[in-house]
Amino acid sequence: MVSVDGNGKTGSLIQVRGLDKTYRRGNEDIHVLQGLNLDVDKGDFVAFMGPSGSGKTTLLNLLGGLDVPTRGSVTVAGDEITHMSRGKLTDWRARHVGFIFQMYNLIPVLTAFQNVELPLLLTKLSKAERRKHVETALAIVGLGERMHHYPRQLSGGQEQRVAIARAIVADPTFLLCDEPTGDLDRKSADEVMDLIKRLVKEHGKTVLMVTHDPVVARQANLTLHLEKGVLVEAGTRQGVVAGGVS
Amino acid sequence: MVPKLIFGVIITIAAIAALLLILIVVGGIIAGLLAPFIGSVPISYNFRSIRARWTSTIVAILGIAGTVGVFVAMLSLARGFRATLVASGSKGNALVMRAGSQTEMMGGITLDSVKLVQDKPGVARDDSGQPLVTEEVVGVIPFPLISTGTDANVQVRGVSTNVLEIRKFVKIVQGRMFHSGLAELVVGKNASKTFAGLTVGNTVNFGGGRWKVVGVFDAGGSSFDSEVWCDGRILNEVLKRPDNIFQSATVHLTSPAAFDQFKDSITSDPQLNLEVQREVDYYAKQSAGMTRLITVLGGLVAAIMAIGAIFGALNTMYSAVAERGREIATMRAVGFSSWNVILSFLFEALLISFIAGIIGCLAVLPLNGWTTQTMNFQTFSSLAFAFKITFGLLVMGVIFALVMGVLGGVIPAVRAARRPVAVALREL
Amino acid sequence: MKFSGLILANLFRKKARLLLTIGSFAVALFLFAFLGVVSDAFSRGADVAGADRLVIINRTSIINTIPLSYRDEILRIPGVKYITHDNWFGGTYQDPKNFFPQFVIDPENQRQVFPELIVPDDQWNAFLKDRQGAIVGAATMKRFGWKIGDRIPITTTLYGLQDKRFEFNIDGVYHGKDPKDDQTQFWIQWEYFKESVPDRLQGQVGWYTLRVNDPGDSTRIAKTIDQSYLNSPYETKTETESAFAQGWVKQFGNIKFLIVTIGTVVFFTLLLVTGNTMAISVRERTPELAVLKAIGFSNRAVLGFVLGESLVISIIGCVGLLLALVAIPVLARALAGMLPTLLITPKTLVYGVVAALVVGFAGGILPAVGAMRMRVVDALRRV
Description:
heterotrimer; A: alpha/beta; 6-stranded mixed β-sheet; 4-stranded antiparallel β-sheet; globular; B: two-stranded antiparallel ribbon; 13 helices
């Protein structure tokens, strides 16, 4: 179950309490997040929506351990990440987080295979084991045949699927997607969304996604809106039930 | 027969290639410089581009500037060396040595021969009717350098007392001339500055004699400035050489035109086995070896550096082309021709190299007149000479920079212009 | 090295730029080696001087002579092992440009004093029997394409000789034990030379070289020799061979300084080129590096990637040194007679490699640290 009131049960996978994030721009303090609470269970698929500048990406960065909050805590699978040193945070990211970006962010000089293999280079797996994992991940995203192509030889949708393979190959605790379909046409976007849904349903992945596209957001189990620095459930505010809660 | 043919063909091809290269370079420079007038791409684009890539532009500038600096410095060193020796010869003087002598040091001329020479036609005389001839001996004597304290050889020249009338550009600037028959020295201004103890009033020991330094002379930047002069007869005595043999005689002629007559009269005299040359020619020949060494070494170093600098310029221009891909494509799309684009890039490359050339020249300009000292291979003795940077050298330096600029700019420019517009637009 | 693939893939991202950077690196290293070799050539003598050898010259002037009669007197000084004498022949072969040093040697003692200059025994014996014989250094033989048995005409105007033409038979070739030994000399017989010089120069030698039993004793022996000829018509100046050679080098004055200055200019230019290339390439792929960090690569790993690229470039740039290895013998032939033989030594090569690594490191470290410090969040925003 997902909840945003700060009263979730203690066993939830991701637990966010009283998260504040303040930026200084010139002489002005900008309070992006103010006392944000969130609980996410294993296997949930949550979409975050909100207008530009509402702090969606900031939230994702904080959840992914790319940035540190001004106040508050983020606990994932029992580890509080807000007080980790930078080096520890890096290791933590490698083990627990799979990132999927709007612009795919593949390394252009590496093949699909090598791109997917990247996170595994940080593990102690042997070459043969790495190969097996990469092939499995690429098979899941349906690109098993294109693994020796370079990013520029792939379509946008295919590139994003490679990026998804890269995100799941090390079997992270959860996936963070920042506008995963923002740069894709409708057909490719649907393919990518089907894939993400399959990851949730068939592989039990936990997915947190930022998007500004209601159609995409509707694919998630629950849509949350970022307003004035806190999350609110879409249904209660706008009277729209964004998706069936399973 | 066949290998000869192939060789000929290769030579021809190489010549054509060289010619083409020269054409490209010269044409490139002219076209590039004229670009603001014939091309319609505004030059403000180039200035903006240079500003946007200032780090890599600075690197390219420093690469070319460094090369130009080394090039100009080495050539000015060679020129300075040559100028120092050439300045030692006077147009109106002739040098007489034994036939076959390469240098004065190898020469030998007896007092009897000198006497015969004095009476030849064309020899100038002073007011009292004495012939203006100086018979000279040279010794190579070690003195301690002020800079290191170690010995270096000084050329000590024994001359006759009327030498100042024969080498008119030599002036005593401190103290007085030596007196005939006394162990007295006058020292060149560079020798006085370079070696310990060669100052007026001092006494130095060499060759078992005690010598008093009585004067300093200024020989106008010639090699004599690095010498020490004394009475030739005394020097012969001290160096334990026969008192009737000298190494050369320098004759002041009634006029430079009298040289041929004088030379003929000596070569036709069966009693004399002597060689006559203009003093200027002798010293020019003396400088040839060292000048060649410095020029060859300097040229080699500058050429290798130039390759490196061209690579630097290429890198900068390539990154300019790469980063401006969309801009170029847009320009092409709205109707600029590929020539406009090529000219625009050439102009940019030339602008960079021109600035670099100027900087390189300015950087070495302070070297002008800076005196350095080395051993002259011909005499085994110390010779002070100065960097001589002329306007012509500076112009050569800037041209060299422009050549590097064209070579570094042409290929990226052509590449920029030849890229299909559609591809370039899509890439970005 | 599971990361080497990533470094190599990044290197080949822009092939033109890679080639140009490696090219300028190679050129600079080539120049580095060349200048090192020239600078070495200027100070060569001091490197190969025998520790146990002393040189005696005329105190008044190096071009003045010393009597042969001193030889036996000096040999009686305790501690002196061998002594030999030489004269500067100062001749010309065909053209003054073909300069090489000709020494009139004392065949009896030459090989005892200079044991490092090796002549095969049969050639040496042929030389001893041939009044007009000559032994020639390997470098000079090669320069003029001479063979044993050739007859070489040399004219000299020194020693009061009127442009006299001599002819010598090449009986043998000497090689140095160390490639740095001077292999350009042309040795001729004292006995043959003696017949030609005028009376006043009879029994006069140019300089002596002697070997002592104990190098530690050199100073005392030198002093003893110079003391005993003080106030004689031919005063002497005795120095160790290395002091003599160094004195000679110092007379070249600022030439070496100039070479070092040029070398420094080249070095810094090179540093800038590498640093610039690395900076451009890091700037271009800031987002990629950010992704690497986001998916869990540590700061140190990112630093390693950038620095690794720069070092790989510098190592490949060492082909410039290989080029120097090939080209310098060719240049040495072209410059023969103008400069002492140019010789590329392992020391120069090692210095070159070290210089390459230093530049590779220095050029890469700033962009690498920049990449390491970069905040992922900011970098991703720039996408």
